[in-house]
Amino acid sequence: MSKLVECVPNFSEGRRPEVIDAIVNEVRKVSGVKLLDVKPDASHNRVVVTFVGEPQAAKQAAFHACAKAAELIDMEKHQGEHPRIGATDVIPFIPVSEVSLEECVQLANELGQEIAGKLNIPIYLYEAAAKIPARKNLPDVRKGQYEGLKMAIAKPERHPDFGQAKMHPTAGATVVGARQFLIAYNINLDTRDVNIAKKIASAIREAKGGYRYVRAMGVMIEERNMAQVTINMVDYTGTPLHRVFETVKSEAARYGINVVGSEIVGLTPLQALLDAAEFYLRLEGFERKQVLETNL
Amino acid sequence: MSKLVECVPNFSEGRRPEVIDAIVNEVRKVSGVKLLDVKPDASHNRVVVTFVGEPQAAKQAAFHACAKAAELIDMEKHQGEHPRIGATDVIPFIPVSEVSLEECVQLANELGQEIAGKLNIPIYLYEAAAKIPARKNLPDVRKGQYEGLKMAIAKPERHPDFGQAKMHPTAGATVVGARQFLIAYNINLDTRDVNIAKKIASAIREAKGGYRYVRAMGVMIEERNMAQVTINMVDYTGTPLHRVFETVKSEAARYGINVVGSEIVGLTPLQALLDAAEFYLRLEGFERKQVLETNL
């Protein structure tokens, strides 16, 4: 298995299938890249595209898709419920296997410079790629949205990280960055008391003194008549699944409650599950390349 | 990830590098197949070749390698310490991912017929592919070796499964079959008392009333001054790693001993570790395709 990054660009078009197709085709055309998902949302008037590939191939695919979006989307005419600042609104790179977050930051820098230089679209760097702390969070970067940023971009504190301090006349601006893979993870409890789930969620989430890379809530799952701790694992390399699972088990026991099971919603990088197997089997000297399939 | 089988043919040549190369090149030439390992042994005068691939590609590679071995190896002149009946001595197919053992049995049948038909080499089917119970175990099939089988093959009970009851004049006969992936797995104990490791080995191994697919011994690891339960997991789909690990933990506790760690020696199919993660995290509704890398 070679170096692999995920890229999840968001484009400001969720209604015209021919425009979405044209953008997605730019991704499909690049060899070494595999398209995983295309999720258009008409009310947001936005499409989320997910693909994975070798880092340079992923960068190339992102660039061509961004160029096509700039050609076909006019932000002067765009309306939708979701905040956005450009035809290509945001492009995050996410490490999947044998790639570090730092390499994804580097990739975001390269892509940002290329878009600014060749397409004349101002670029903001966010999350792990942010050069300015105030740009770590996407909502802060998008403040005022496309319409507001047209004026605000001239202020020094809103100058882009790459390109001129002037919106592209139709494509606006784009946010590029790097972040860890987010694993959506739920843990189900054998209780109908949602308050216990809420207390456990508080115990594990960063905001309340819990694990740094955990966002969690307690909710009631009516179909199963069961309380659930619903979790966003925002960096499984820093806070692993098994540690959160074990802590939830131990916190639940304090109320005489058991963990019935857990669910991974959607995709996970292989490494997150290998880490769990390695932990529980107390594996010594285990290397990823011992997994037969990773040699292919 | 597509269907994947492993194939580990053994050829009766461990001394002439040019012959080994010529055989291995037949494997390298086939697209859809990846060579993982070549292990020649001069005193055995034998080479073990390991490759993986899509089932039909793996079959094709095995056929061409077998044909080349028949061309270059003369069993009339072969000497070596390891039991063998032919130039290509044995060809097992092993399921790795998204392939059942039954599909590997089918593959062994197809390959056996092809070798018998095109190369005129009599074929015996063994292990999961055995049509005759007495041929399940390889040593039974190889009884008398090349020299003895030349005569014995004429007896009805030694007739091959495919081909004529007559040895190929230089290539002898070949055994083809299917088996599960063997995982070499060790569990280390915080004791220097090898008798405890031996008792635990007895508790888990089939021969002594333990798990059906477990072969185990207790040994002393002098370098670490530590007793170890050393295990061959001959079918991890029937007896999973985590069940054996938990049983060893519980048997060790009976002597006041702890499990320090475990080791996977060499390769393992991904599924064996996913099964462990799924067990310990109590995953509900988990599907292999949720592992991002398996979509590529």
Automatic annotation (TrEMBL), chains A, B:
Occurrences of domain Formiminotransferase N-terminal subdomain (ranges): 3-180
Keyword hit for Calcium: no
GO molecular function: glutamate formimidoyltransferase activity
Residues covered by the Formiminotransferase C-terminal subdomain domain: 181-295
Entry's EC annotation: 2.1.2.5
Location of the protein in the cell: Cytoplasm
Keywords, alphabetical: Cytoplasm, Folate-binding, Histidine metabolism, Transferase
Keyword Transferase among record annotations: yes
InterPro entries reported in the protein's UniProt record: Formiminotransferase_C, Formiminotransferase_C_sf, Formiminotransferase_cat, Formiminotransferase_N, Formiminotransferase_N_sf, FormiminoTrfase_cat_dom_sf, FTCD
PANTHER family assigned: FORMIMINOTRANSFERASE-CYCLODEAMINASE
Name of this protein: glutamate formimidoyltransferase
